[in-house]
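Hi Q.,

Before the meeting this afternoon, I wanted you to have the 6-O-alpha-D-glucopyranosyl-D-fructose prediction in hand. No need to reply - just skim if you have a minute. The sequence and ligand are here:
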Amino acid sequence: MQKTWWKEGVVYQIYPRSFKDTTGNGLGDIYGIIKKLDYIKSLGVDIIWLCPVYESPNDDNGYDISDYKAISEDFGGSDAFDQLLDGMHKRGLKLVMDLVLNHSSDEHNWFKESRKSKDNPYRDYYFWKPSKHGNPPNNWTSFFSGSAWKKDDITDEYFLHLFTKKQPDLNWENPKVREEIHKIVDYWCRKGVDGFRMDVISLISKQINFPDSIYPNDYGKTIKNYYANGPKIHKYLNELNKEVLSKYDIMTVGEGPGIDLNNGLDYVNVDRNELNMIFHFDHMFIDNGPGGKYDPIEVSLPHFKKVFNDWDIKLKDKGWGSIFLGNHDFSRMVSRFGNDKKYHTESAKLLAMLLFTLRGTVYVYQGDEIGMTNVAYSSIEDYNDVETLNSWHEAKANGKNMEKYLDLVHMQSRDNARTPMQWNSTKNSGFSKGKPWLKVNENYKTINVETQENDTNSVLNFYREMIAFRKANTTMVYGDYKCINEKDEFLFIYTRSDHENRYVILLNFSDDIQSIKHPDLNLDTSTLVISNLSISHSIKELQPWEAQLRKYN
Ligand code: ISL
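Predicted structure with the ligand bound:
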């Protein structure tokens, strides 16, 4: 297996509008990130993945780009960006840009031209179709509720938008579109960025006969069978790699709804020259029922473990994994996979131990390093996310019980991850001197960076400890992974080993004491290296949410 910086590096993901505001307008900005670079560096991470900061009307908070080469003035413009890149490189930090190439904003010049007439030179930059008997061209629905087609009055045709109406899908079939995209990617490489996170890259190749989905009531199946992994996906990625990516020492990670064990390796197989890594969602969509995330189902630990086990096996020879438990699109990891009440600190640390002891590149989402939790606004008025609001309106139109639906929003809204970063216990959590664009989580007085800086036992300092440990022990990066107890409902036990070291990680994912029933583990021949609790550490049983990292003698 080839060793590289992006396999060994730890990534810190920043959602800029919620990170740090320096102007007082309530919106985080790039100067805010610059101000916090020493903090980021102090975590021990190596790479920053910056969510989109391009020019955008912000229908989907920057995932609708109107100019791929311009940095939004809201965030400080190109001067701020240049200073950020410089400040990062001076500190030995690398920058990964978020690129949204499946769709643009409808305010991008290409789309403004495209909609003008059927014979406009930009018409084929997007997918336009006539209506079918007065209806949209097919039954596809948007990720964000409603039809995936919108009729445009100027030419009386529909355009495809898998996300919001202001995010028309680009037509990669058109070689001119691909050429434009190659130029954009090259532009950022020449500027000196160190990599890209490619938004919904699994969706760029469409089934251009646009068949109706035979699973209109099963969103996951529709994504897998109709939207994702289209016929030319690998041709496009291979071409992008050959024309641009391969010319630079950069890292690429493709985001991929619809990517699964059957097709995942094809995206990252070293022999195929496409991407370095992907984000699959097998563990993140684990609680989605047929109706999607607002139709949640029970999650079992065996299923959760199976996802990690299967993917590790799938990628171990020819690929490389991405290890993450949260990002700007999901509820907070401690609220989702831990216990954010009674065992907040313990479970936040346990999840950190899981992250930093799995094989793959680790991604930490801002705020998770202090155990930030979900928020529960009492009114839908306080929510901002377009996906949350669209699904709310759809549920209302369908006569759902909206009191119950608000509980679902509390559990699943993407705004859970987007509340302002909690820096200290002063007004607005030290995020902004003005009114934050999204309300601060009320628990900022207890959960914040400043308090945790001063507490050696804090979640924050545990992250530092785990990151430092991983960086000093490449067994944690490259070593073999083996799960010991796939079927156990409460404990997750696995080993990491190479020719030099053998470690065992024991995690109790429950509120109860659990006994360790694996005599063959010979834990008496191991020594405790790191634990999340300051008690005596039994090798017979684990306390609620106890996490032990042990090394065999
Ligand atoms: O957000 C989701 C579930 O909570 C996903 O379905 C998500 O929409 C999907 O993974 C794609 O996400 C990416 O592209 C979207 C953008 O809104 C997300 O923020 C981005 O991460 C459209 O560009």
